[in-house]
Amino acid sequence: MRILVLGAGGVGGYFGGRLLEKGEDVTFLVRKKRQQQLAENGLVIKSIHGDVKLTPKTITTEDKVETFDLVIFSTKAYHLEASMKDVKAFVGEDTIILPLLNGMNHVKKIQDYFGEERVLGGLCFIETTLGDKGEVVQTSPIHEVVFGEFSNEHTNRIRRVNEVLQGTKASFRLSDFILRDMWHKYLFITVLSGVTTLMRSPIGPIREVENGESIIRQVFNEVAEVMHAVGAPLSEDIVDKHMNTVKKMTYTMKSSMQRDMEKGFFIEGEHLQGYLVQKAKKHDIHTPLLNLIYQNLKVYEERHSKKELS
């Protein structure tokens, strides 16, 4: 199976790299600057699960190559529109698309652009960043991709994808309830990114300060109420499960959004928290902490945009 990974950053570089390490036919669609960096330094993964240096195949949007069997979207939500246009020439009649973006707002956009029948459900759990020389630095125990058909069926194509994705140092798990799993991830990442960016802190100090856990739980409850209102298939005990996960997280765990803010990068606040704030207003749901988190992100974006223009 010919696999195209859109981007070679923290997510695409890591999971695509693990597939390449296994011996799968993986190509990375990258910008020219990243292509040159990979040509000079290789695709370097530094991970608690094992370091590796790889020689990846790369292409840019200007290259003319055959279409691919599987395209993995590992881009940020704010790059989605451009990314869909970039990858269009490499998508054939039978190409399968696996998006690993956070949230849910992107799903219909990708389905509308490429055709609903081509798109799988997917998500990932990982803590990564890029080092000074473009190396992928992965620091937490969890490094998992979850995927499946929205119909929950074990179709021939999903069995074929599952077979290809198995056997790497990362975890690729076929889900029987991918839509539920995606909403569960959306709930978790919204709260984790929200509280860590609001407090400018890793999860440990937030969790352990007086009233810290109760505040985290309140944000979970607010977000879950909004998700229930829009028909999300959440498990009844998901807030308790997510709180247990928060309690077990390492003291220094940061969300990727927090890391992006620390580096002065664009963030996915509109895609994650903003989408839910809009739904809360529509359904007249009171979400004071979610609104505060979103306002904090909007202030950052305002300051970031002025810095970009200066």
TrEMBL record:
Keywords (A to Z) from UniProt: NADP, Oxidoreductase, Pantothenate biosynthesis
Superkingdom of the source species: Bacteria
Native source organism of the sequence: Priestia iocasae
InterPro entries recorded: 6-PGluconate_DH-like_C_sf, 6PGD_dom2, ApbA, KPA_reductase, KPR-Related, KPR_N, NAD(P)-bd_dom_sf
EC number: 1.1.1.169
Positions of the Ketopantoate reductase N-terminal domain: 3-151
Catalysed reactions, semicolon-separated: (R)-pantoate + NADP(+) = 2-dehydropantoate + NADPH + H(+)
Descriptive protein name: 2-dehydropantoate 2-reductase
Family, similarity comment: Belongs to the ketopantoate reductase family.
Gene3D superfamilies attached to this UniProt entry: N-(1-d-carboxylethyl)-l-norvaline Dehydrogenase, domain 2, NAD(P)-binding Rossmann-like Domain
The keyword Cell cycle is annotated on this UniProt entry: no
One Pfam assignment: ApbA_C
Domain Ketopantoate reductase C-terminal: 178-301
Its biological purpose: Catalyzes the NADPH-dependent reduction of ketopantoate into pantoic acid.
One function term, GO molecular function aspect: 2-dehydropantoate 2-reductase activity
Pathway of action: Cofactor biosynthesis; (R)-pantothenate biosynthesis; (R)-pantoate from 3-methyl-2-oxobutanoate: step 2/2
